[in-house]
Amino acid sequence: MKILVTGGAGFIGSNFIRYLLAAHPEHTVVNIDKLTYAGNLENLRDIEHLPSYTFVKGDICDKKLIESLEFDAIIHFAAESHVDRSILDSFPFLQTNIIGTQNLLEAARKRDCRMLHVSTDEVYGSIGHGLFTERSPIVPNSPYAASKASSDLLVRAYHETYGMDLLITRCSNNYGPYQFPEKLIPLVISHALRGKTIPVYGDGQNVRDWIHVLDHNRAVDIAFHRAKGGDIYNIGGRNEQKNIDIIRALLGIIAERTGRDREGLFGLITFVKDRPGHDRRYAIDPSALEAALGWRPEIPFDQGLADTVAWYIENRRWWERVISGEYLEYYQLQYGGRLEE
Ligand code: NAD
Ligand code: TYD
To answer: In Å, how far are 43, 259, 286 from 10, measured between CA atoms?
Structure first.
């Protein structure tokens, strides 16, 4: 099968392509990515030479381009993904996450092909007690979450209206290698390693349900190959953590691994003004996916966190090049293209 993976130069998409090509040598991948600030082709350095992999620089909103590509199925990761940016300017979120998804749905409709839409638990809003199930109300609180919820509703509507073979997965917060250092875990690690203050929004008691990106990747693979059209599955690690606890755990691991002074690292923690509309708690029930398709999260959080810290220590050049902007040169060097094209 020739699979169009969108947003494959981002954090989850790049991990997914690496995983998919190793797990399914029978498939080939066309990675379409606009290379926004979050797209980094250096994430795919080790697999870009494979004959089963092709990169196309392009926008999922570009109808003609999508129509010109050959593929048998779509796995759709491309999105504007950072809540803080959506608060500053929601326009690119609406454009890519809603219009881009609709454009892909139209392309899937013309080809009569399967499309898996990668979504988020943030569409369910914040939950006081209990867990989000696939039947929880869709009540997003940030412009990012609202744009993802809108795209989920479009996918649902296309399935109902046209009987298309469409799937939605809604995953909780991911962590792991190649995550852009604006998100909590890589931000804490990269700040701590440079002795920079670590901003904690509000009281640090907000809860997120964390899952390793490779567990998410496996779940998407299983859903893509085995779920039936119209299915919606939650994906989560049954792993609720308060932000402040994660930050302390990360600093503890860093102190141990680097021999840095624990007190000095903990002194970097700085409570700052809360994020507007900051969701208090996300907690996801993945039991439908577990029961129907036999998936289980496999990476324990303490191990995943320690491995992630080790990865960021060993791959310091990767994130330093992201922070300095040098990573943007890679497209030109490797593919001879220019980013503004
Ligand atoms: P990311 O920001 O790291 O990567 C997004 C990628 O999409 C980038 O490579 C970017 O260049 C590309 N892109 C953006 N706009 C595009 C456009 N118009 N056309 C083509 N490519 C475009 O995001 P991520 O964390 O890897 O998230 C991937 C998907 O998973 C998103 O749909 C996100 O909503 C979803 N998700 C993320 C998490 C998480 O914790 N990160 C959790 C659940 C779901
Ligand atoms: P983030 O990684 O942005 O993911 P999301 O908002 O999609 O859950 O943030 C995770 C949590 O960490 C969230 O509650 C906001 C908080 N946070 C901070 O306290 N400080 C930070 O610098 C960042 C980026 C996030």
So the answer is: 8, 32, 24
The answer as to whether 319 is a domain residue is no
How far is it, in rounded angstroms, from Cα 291 to Cα 120?
20
Predicted local confidence at residue 333, as pLDDT: 87
Is 192 within the bounds of a domain?
no
Range of the domain at 141: 2-174+213-238+278-298+326-335
Q: What averages of pLDDT result for each successive group of 10 residues across the chain (341 residues)?
A: 98 98 98 98 97 97 97 98 98 98 98 98 97 98 98 98 98 98 98 98 98 98 98 98 98 98 98 98 98 97 98 98 95 80 56
Question: For the whole model, what pTM was predicted?
Answer: 0.98
Report which protein residue has its CA nearest ligand 2's atom 9: 184
Closest ligand 2 atom to residue 142 Cα is: 6
The yes-or-no answer on residue 298 being catalytic is no
Q: What is the CATH number of the domain that holds 219?
A: 3.40.50.720
Chain centroid to Cα 183, Å, comes to 10
